[in-house]
Fold Glutamine synthetase.
Amino acid sequence: MDKQRDFVLRTIEERGVKFIRLWFTDVIGTLKSVAIAPAEVEGAFAEGLGFDGSAIEGLTRSFESDLLAHPDPTTFQILPWRGEVDPTARMFCDITTPDGQPAVADPRHVLKRTLAKAADAGFTFYTHPEIEFYLLKSSTYGPNGPEPVDSAGYFDNVPGGTAHDFRRRSVRMLEDLGISVEFSHHEGGPGQNEIDLRYADALTTADNIMTFRTVIKEVAIEQGVYATFMPKPMGGKPGSGMHTHMSLFEGDMNAFYEEGAQYQLSKVGRQFIAGLLTHAPEISAVTNQFVNSYKRLWGGDEAPSFICWGHNNRSALVRVPLYKPNKGQSSRVEYRGLDSAANPYLAYALMLAAGLKGIEEEYELPAEAEDNVWTMTDAERRAMGYKPLPPSLDVALDRMEESELVAETLGEQVFNYVLLNKRREWQGYRAQVTPFELQSNLEML
């Protein structure tokens, strides 16, 4: 760590960095930032930077408000969109109490704690997210809703289109920040794009997702458009998911791979999937944390609504992708319920905890879904045992509130805050009178 700190201090001097932004995330997943001068960095490394935690959503109760942000030198990067005028860098922070204990409500610590539990069982957790978002002409909208920048579709090549330049600039910026991109393409909705990050350990991935959202927003501003990670910004158009591929490694060996097994998927891999399926309803309030998230899950357009798994079946909640011959390391499972607006630290902590529970308790994996689950009747799905995901945030919160797994993984303070904050959101949503009601009822009743 000392070497890393020396590298940071040297780079700040050599590159003439004028500001260093210290980044951390609140419980809902909003990025927080405080800028310090180069002269303050050494002190921040040694003692942390004090701030009032009670002013940040969910971080502390008011009577224990003093917190310290400790920059993690391994996350130091110069921000490319700031250019050469007043070069600016960033580091992610770990949050502690004044006596040096990890702050219980720091989402990054929640994930670190769960990763430590996996490490005790001999596992490293790797993730690879496919992040979807919409590019709109502006953040305002008219009677027809938000206006996308194009009307293109999946994998479309749009000559001279905004999306090409946008993706090229975004990918270059992400690479400058040390974030490897695997694919980028136009998605199914008008103005919808997807950028897939290369797999990394889950903590790095979560940091990368927070950086990714900032990069996408910055490039959009630069190009005169607006980027949104809202799960379902337009009715009748696809929602924005964050399908995540996951694998557990034991040292250099992929614990999900077993040569000769069905789909080359090991017993550990099967139990991990069983854990995800069993606990999917109770983790939904975190993996799908907004009222709008359930418009994506239940709005058709390839979002998973039912709890089942399948081999290369895109209607299933968990998919086992096609196995590449002679590539045992690539065995993985894909969770398709997660959306682009989730707090990645908490969502990955819960997905890992659910999978680990499946391994610990040796859950039995049910039969796979071979048919298109969307086209089945309710009776057919019931007969096959495919239960639905929660239909609304309200139901998801009820399921979460009953969950020992979620309470234990998040810790009491984060658990209570998420419930409180999201109940408030649901009450606000339930109290409104919507255009749908007015159009349907006002003249008729």
Q: What stands out?
A: Residues 202-222 form the longest helix (21 residues). The chain has a mean pLDDT of 91. The two ends are 69 Å apart (CA to CA). Residues 1-101 form a domain with the Ubiquitin-like (UB roll) fold (CATH 3.10.20.70).
